[in-house]
Amino acid sequence: MAFSPKPQTCRRPTVVVWDLMS
């Protein structure tokens, strides 16, 4: 999920993790 090939999750892995925890 965190590393989905979506344009929305095209950020750094760390930022994605924070987004999921948000």
Task: Describe what you observe in this structure.
The chain contains 1 helix and no strands. It is globular.
Give structural attributes:
globular, 41% helix, 0% strand, 22 residues, mainly alpha
The Cα radius of gyration reads 7 Å
How many DSSP-defined strands? 0
The major beta sheet can be summarized as: none
Amino- and carboxy-terminal Cα gap: 14 Å
| Arithmetic mean of pLDDT | 69
The gross shape turns out to be globular
**Approximately how much beta-strand content do the residues carry?**
under 5%
Helix content: 40-55%
Low-confidence stretches: none
Structural class: mainly alpha
Order of helices and strands: H
Number of helices: 1
Quaternary: single chain
Short structural description:
The chain has 22 residues and is mainly α.
Topology (SSEs and partners):
Elements: H1 13-21
